[in-house]
Amino acid sequence: MRFLKDWCVAAMTVLLVSLTGCAGGLLETWEGPGAKVFRPQSIAALPPMASQYDNAREDIQEVLAVSLVKAGRIERVVHAEQVADIFQSSKEAFDTLVFYFSRLEMTGQSDRETAIKLGKAMNVEAFLVLRINAWEYAGKAGNNVGRVGLTLRLVDATTGATIWKARHEKSSGYIFNRPNLKEVAAELTDEMVKYMPPTAIGQKR
What we know:
It is a single chain. The chain has about 200 residues and is α/β, with parallel strands linked by helices. It contains 7 helices and 6 strands. It has helices at about 1-15, 55-70, 80-90, 90-105, 110-120, 180-195, 200; strands at about 30, 40-45, 75-80, 125-140, 145-155, 160-175. A hairpin with a 2-residue loop joins β4 (about 125-140) and β5. α4 packs antiparallel against α5 (about 110-120). The longest helix has 17 residues, at about 90-105. The protein is globular, with a radius of gyration of 19 Å.
């Protein structure tokens, strides 16, 4: 009976605890010199860069766009479906996207000319580059968790400069019923958008 009681207490503890990575902030964040004066009126999230979690590409792009809309501080947010249509309907735009990603992978830097072309293709002043670092169910410290991790890069589409970069993750513990990873991702993107440069979203931290 004591074993059963202890197990139930442990189960309830795991069920109630949500693991959020780094309390009170993001795991990693960086701001460029232009962050304080950057005030885009339009923004889009690019299709996520290739990773082992490609099955989550549409979901993460969608929840990020929703988080930007919910923040209500950038006048126009291009939705995920519209972004997908742009790159599916224009070979030139798609080739530009592929080249941009390849240069980013090779150099770690945003290619100026290609970034400007992408901004014009999407008719935006800024865009976000996404990389999915985790989208999985796993064991963590003896507990079962649903975990989502993401890296974001905010780019000025008029100059090609990187304004802000951040990495963060969020985990939700469970016993029997797995959490919906899309819901975990929505909480993560809501949190990350809060930490974007204050002049980019019109709000001081």
